[in-house]
Each structure stands twice: as structure tokens, then as C-alpha cells.
Design goal:
6-stranded mixed beta sheet, binds protoporphyrin IX containing FE, 12 strands, 405 residues
């Protein structure tokens, strides 16, 4: 018999608490022991069981991102941060989303990502030249310069802007955490990033080139010249690409390095073999990754005899979904060469699935390989704190000591 979701007796997950962020797994296990696939939270109903997350995404057309509601709840309608949230591709649906996605897709294929590998290696090698001799540093800070450096090179942006961009990206990384205390920083970050993107586009339009050495910005500026995207959309898109690739990559690489301090044999092998690094990155994303996001139900869904009415918010913990022991064999073991890998959901699911995933994968594998060659025997006492589980999760500071090579 079908039961209304609000009438179920469900366990509660206190996802807003730092203790939860520090170790979410026992909380999920305890929740699943009380109900096989649902829990409540301050942020909506949480779908706790990996197969059900996949099943529900077959009804994706009955859900959408909850950005309108988020901006309203934060009292930010009509502000730079609010306009950025409502204008970005994750909030786009139907024809607009298809137009943006079709326009971007050719620049984000595996082949295009592979073409950028040298640029990724150069960025990491330069960083290591200045950081590796120190013998100790905060790994999160060190690795934060990597995705910004890669992205700036990919759009041909001058490097002088990078420190200011980093501050803005740090602020915007907290966008989905629903924390009013960071609103002013997020507003300033959104203003700064959009001004930067606007200036970058204008500068490129003035010298716009075409040919085989076209970078991502050249491609996008050409689409704008043909009328395929407006000025506001392109400014928002460049801003979004910076945001989308920043703390996701940084936080995953920090979580990954933490695991590497626990598995020195795996780490040592990474120094010899970049293809093995790709496996370590995949296993690392299965083990835990960063993105845990919501959807608003727009049409009633009946699933496994539960009625989820329109207006319900569902929370999808993609970053930890493949630690579900009911779905993944030996879920708590870190095994880069596992055969029966249940595909991780670190890049999301469905029509909004990450467009930058091939770039992200290549960047993390190349980065890990060079790090393992220069930073030997990393040791840590553990993270200094944890970022909110909701939105883009991760460690807040990971001091390491190591032997420079
Ligand atoms: C390890 C790094 C990354 C992770 C974990 C990640 C994760 C995600 C996730 C989970 C989504 C889906 C969000 C949703 O459906 O609500 C997404 C979307 C997206 N990501 Fe990534 N991302 C990463 C890196 C990147 C990079 C480097 C870029 C671009 C340079 C990028 C561009 C995008 C874009 C454009 C979308 C929106 C796609 C759409 O709405 O159709 N991401 N990402």
C-alpha cells in the first residue's frame, strides 16, 4: 500500500553539524538500519540507499534544482550572488539547458581533456617547484592553486588575478550550505568573479583569433558572435566554470591525499604510473567525494510504495553513495584495482551530470602523479576541520610533513 512520505517514521540526519561532516558513514548506516532508503534532515528528505538514488533519477523529469527556493530562503533575490545562482546552467531547464549543454559539450570531450594534459602537468610542476622544497605545508592550500591555475590557462587568463579569484571561489564554494554568515563574502565573490569574466571576454573579443590553437574562451566567444549565447549568459558561464571546477577538485584531492597518508604502498606506486593514478582517483571518488546536492520534486513521484508529492525537497548524498555496504562489496576498503566497482556518483547523475568530468579526471590523475614524485612519505595528524556536508563537502586544512624529492 502506498504511504505518503511525511507519514513515514524516519530516522533524522543532523547533516548541519561538523561532527556529521567529520564522519558521515556511521550516521548513514544507522539511518539505513531504521529505514532502507529514506531519512529526514534540515535540508529535505535524504535518499540514503545507492540503488534508490539511481532509480529515482529515472524520474528526473519530475525534479529540478532548488536554486530559486535557495536564493529566496537566503533573502538574496536580485543580488549579485542570487542572480548568479539563478542564471547558471544547473538552474537551467528544457530548451535553455539543452542549448547551453550542446554548445559546451564539444569542448569537454575526453579528447579535448587529453589535449590539456601538458598544460595540467606544467601547472602542477610549477607549483611543486615553489612548494615542494618546504618539507611541510597545508595540502589543501597548496592544491587549491592547481584547479585555478589550470582553468586560467585553459581560458588564457592573466595569472595576476589568481589570488583574488581564489578568495572569491572560496566564498562561493559555500553557496549551497545555507549559511547566512557567509552571505557578504559570497556577494563580494560573485561581483568580483563576474567583473573578471566580463573583462576577460571583452579583452578576447578585441583580439579574437580562430584556428587550431583556439582555447575554450575562443570557442565560446565565437558562439556569442554567432548569436548562440548572450553577454550575460557567457559572463555567468565563465564564472560558473571557475566555481564548478575549483573546490570540487581541491577538496577531492585533499581527501585523496589524506587516504594516501594511510596507504603508502598505493601512493608510492602513483609516482611510477600515471594510469594507476587514474584508478586511484576513481576509487577515491567512490570512497568519498564532494558533491551532495538537492532536487525539488515538481510532479508527484511514487517510488517503492512511497508517495513523494510535488514540492518535496530530496537530498542526494552523491559524494558518499558508494560507501553503501548494501550496494557495494567491501565498501569501506580502499581498493584502486577493485573489479566490481559500482559506478560512483561523484559527478552526479542525469541531464546535469558534470560536463567537466574528463577534465577533472585528467587533472587529478596528472596532478597526483607529479605530487607523488616530489612529495615523498607524506605524514599528517589529520584535517584541521570539516566543510559543511551539504553542497561541496571536504576537509578544512590538511597539514602534512614530507620528504622533498
Ligand atoms: C573533481 C571535480 C568535479 C566534481 C566532483 C564535479 C561534480 C559535479 C556534479 C556533481 C555536477 C552535477 C550537479 C547537479 O546535477 O546538481 C556537476 C555539474 C557540472 N560541472 Fe562539474 N565537477 C567537477 C569538476 C568540473 C570542472 C573542472 C568543470 C569545468 C571546467 C565542471 C563543469 C561542470 C558543469 C558545466 C556542470 C553543469 C552541467 C549541466 O548543468 O548540464 N566540473 N559537476
Amino acid at each position: 500500500m502506498t504511504q505518503l512520505i511525511s507519514e513515514l517514521e524516519l530516522p533524522h540526519l543532523a547533516m548541519e553539524e561538523e561532527a556529521f561532516s567529520a564522519d558521515p558513514y556511521p550516521h548513514f548506516d544507522a539511518a539505513r538500519a531504521r529505514h532502507p532508503w529514506l531519512a529526514t534532515s534540515r535540508f529535505g528528505y535524504v535518499v540514503t540507499h545507492y540503488p534508490v538514488i539511481r532509480e529515482l533519477f529515472t524520474s528526473e523529469q519530475k525534479m529540478r534544482g532548488n536554486y530559486v527556493e535557495m536564493v529566496e530562503a537566503m533573502g538574496a533575490t536580485g543580488t549579485p550572488w542570487g542572480d548568479f545562482q539563478l542564471g547558471h546552467i544547473l538552474n537551467a531547464q528544457g530548451d535553455k539547458h539543452k542549448r547551453l549543454r550542446d554548445m559546451l559539450a564539444p569542448a569537454f570531450t575526453p579528447r579535448q581533456a587529453n589535449r590539456r594534459r601538458q598544460l595540467m602537468r606544467d601547472t602542477m610542476a610549477e607549483l611543486l617547484d615553489s612548494w615542494a622544497p618546504r618539507g611541510a605545508f597545508d595540502f589543501e592550500e597548496f592544491v587549491s592553486w592547481f584547479p585555478i591555475g589550470v582553468m586560467c590557462r585553459m581560458v588564457g587568463a592573466p595569472r595576476e588575478a589568481i589570488p583574488e579569484l581564489r578568495d572569491s571561489l572560496e566564498a562561493l564554494g559555500l553557496s549551497v550550505s545555507m549559511d547566512l554568515s557567509v552571505m557578504e563574502a559570497m556577494q563580494q565573490g560573485a561581483r568580483q568573479l563576474e567583473d573578471w569574466a566580463f573583462g576577460l571576454i571583452a579583452a578576447r573579443e578585441a583580439v579574437h583569433k580562430s584556428g587550431d590553437d583556439n582555447d575554450l574562451l575562443d570557442v565560446l566567444v565565437e558562439v556569442k558572435a554567432r548569436g548562440g549565447i548572450s553577454q550575460d549568459e557567457l559572463t555567468n558561464l565563465i564564472t560558473f566554470l571557475m566555481v564548478a571546477g575549483y573546490d570540487t577538485s581541491k577538496n577531492i584531492m585533499t581527501l585523496l591525499m589524506h587516504e594516501m597518508t594511510r596507504f603508502p604502498d598505493i601512493y608510492r606506486r602513483c609516482a611510477d604510473d600515471v594510469e594507476y593514478c587514474a584508478k586511484v582517483v576513481e576509487e577515491s571518488m567512490r570512497f568519498h567525494s564532494t558533491s551532495n546536492l538537492m532536487r525539488l520534486v515538481t510532479d508527484d513521484i511514487v517510488h517503492r510504495d512511497v508517495l513523494i508529492p510535488a514540492g518535496t525537497t530530496l537530498f542526494f548524498p552523491w559524494g558518499v553513495a558508494t560507501r553503501d555496504p548494501g550496494a557495494v562489496e567491501d565498501a569501506d576498503s580502499f581498493l584502486p584495482e577493485r573489479v566490481n566497482r559500482n559506478t560512483h556518483l561523484g559527478f552526479g547523475l542525469g541531464s546535469h551530470m558534470c560536463l567537466g568530468q574528463f577534465i577533472a579526471r585528467a587533472q587529478m590523475a596528472e596532478g597526483l602523479h607529479l605530487i607523488a614524485r616530489r612529495i615523498k612519505n607524506p605524514r599528517t595528524e589529520g584535517p584541521q576541520g570539516w566543510r559543511p556536508f551539504v553542497g561541496v563537502w571536504g576537509m578544512r586544512g590538511l597539514p602534512i610533513a614530507f620528504d622533498p624529492a
